């Protein structure tokens, strides 16, 4: 008799990363330093300086994604943490948020003018969608519902399937992964879920689903999909196991000293890329939404400076401007 596969609920309960009723990071990860109160954080958030937003519309490049074809991986960034990876006719869409908002209330956390230049209608047929975790700036139900007819399958972190139930069909086309699990997507394409240092939740309760980074091995190339993460030793562990990487895509925005363990500052982003043995770094998680208090262009300024000091190639495309792995890395300082 064929053995019955465990349910998602059973897999969550059996996960080594699920303890005391919620998923846990590899290292102890406070949401804030001990000497900082939530009241202080709220007061600072409500008094953000004007330069958290750009002075004018975000510059964009118009690319016909449906006509795109390349033998080398091409990555097209759509602002914040949404991007398309294309190679040899295979399309992978990561954390698409095209509704114009990264909040359960559409009038909050609005996209910068110009940053929402791309919509679901611009996307090609999606062979694989990756959702790293369930935060609103990474899992946008309105966008997913619009992309549903054009998405063949979704891979995500363990437990996130619950959040996908109302916007996409669950079942055979949704695969939930625990850290260090590997799935063969197609011939010469594998995906491995790897650790991140973050948290999950779409309301009061946190930790009900996992948050992940992913290692994409595709047609001989290795790309690291970072999701959201604070800096920790897991980057070196992943680099030692899978590196070197042709390209690492890492968060580089929405950081603050009030939450130093769950998001990286730009200098830590560069160190993480070095830990991963990256040949090139594409910094994301900036350029579309305000979720912190730093200037809108603080991220690219600091990460390019730190990258130059450490001898790391940092590519900084405009929204919609293709990056071709091993061939074309836009590096213009267009934000200045």
TrEMBL record:
Gene3D superfamilies: Ribonuclease Z/Hydroxyacylglutathione hydrolase-like. It comes from the Bacteria. InterPro entries: Metallo-B-lactamas (IPR001279), NAPE-PLD (IPR024884), RibonucZ/Hydroxyglut_hydro (IPR036866). One of its GO terms (molecular function) is N-acylphosphatidylethanolamine-specific phospholipase D activity. One of its GO terms (cellular component) is cytoplasm. Residues 91-286 form the Metallo-beta-lactamase domain. This is L-ascorbate metabolism protein UlaG, beta-lactamase superfamily. It comes from Chitinophaga ginsengisegetis.
């Amino acid at each position: 008799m064929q053995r019955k596969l465990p349910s998602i609920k059973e897999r969550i309960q059996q996960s080594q990363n699920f303890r005391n009723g919620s998923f846990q990071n590899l290292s102890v990860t406070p949401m804030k330093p001990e000497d900082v109160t939530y009241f202080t954080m709220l007061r600072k958030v409500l008094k953000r300086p004007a330069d958290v937003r750009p002075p004018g519309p975000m510059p964009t490049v118009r690319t016909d994604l449906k006509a795109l074809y390349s033998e080398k991986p091409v990555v097209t960034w759509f602002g914040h943490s949404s991007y398309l990876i294309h190679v040899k006719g295979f399309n992978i869409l990561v954390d698409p948020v095209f509704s114009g908002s990264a909040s359960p209330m559409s009038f909050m956390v609005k996209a910068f003018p110009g940053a929402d230049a791309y919509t679901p209608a611009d996307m090609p047929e999606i062979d694989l969608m990756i959702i790293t975790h369930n935060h609103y700036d990474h899992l946008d139900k309105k966008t997913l519902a619009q992309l549903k007819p054009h998405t063949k399958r979704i891979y995500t972190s363990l437990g996130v399937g619950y959040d996908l139930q109302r916007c996409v069909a669950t079942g055979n086309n949704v695969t939930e992964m625990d850290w260090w699990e590997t799935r063969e997507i197609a011939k010469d394409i594998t995906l491995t879920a790897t650790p991140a240092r973050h948290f999950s939740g779409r309301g009061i309760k946190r930790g009900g689903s996992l948050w992940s980074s992913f290692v994409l091995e595709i047609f001989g190339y290795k790309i690291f999909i970072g999701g959201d993460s604070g800096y920790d030793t897991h980057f070196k562990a992943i680099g030692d196991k899978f590196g070197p990487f042709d390209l690492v895509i890492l968060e580089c925005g929405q950081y603050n000293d009030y939450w130093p363990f769950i998001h990286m500052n730009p200098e830590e982003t560069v160190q993480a890329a070095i830990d991963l043995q990256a040949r090139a770094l594409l910094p994301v998680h900036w350029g579309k939404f305000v979720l912190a208090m730093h200037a809108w262009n603080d991220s690219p300024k600091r990460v390019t400076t730190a990258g130059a000091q450490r001898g790391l190639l940092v590519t900084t495309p405009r929204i919609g401007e293709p990056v071709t792995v091993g061939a074309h890395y836009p590096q213009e300082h267009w934000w200045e």
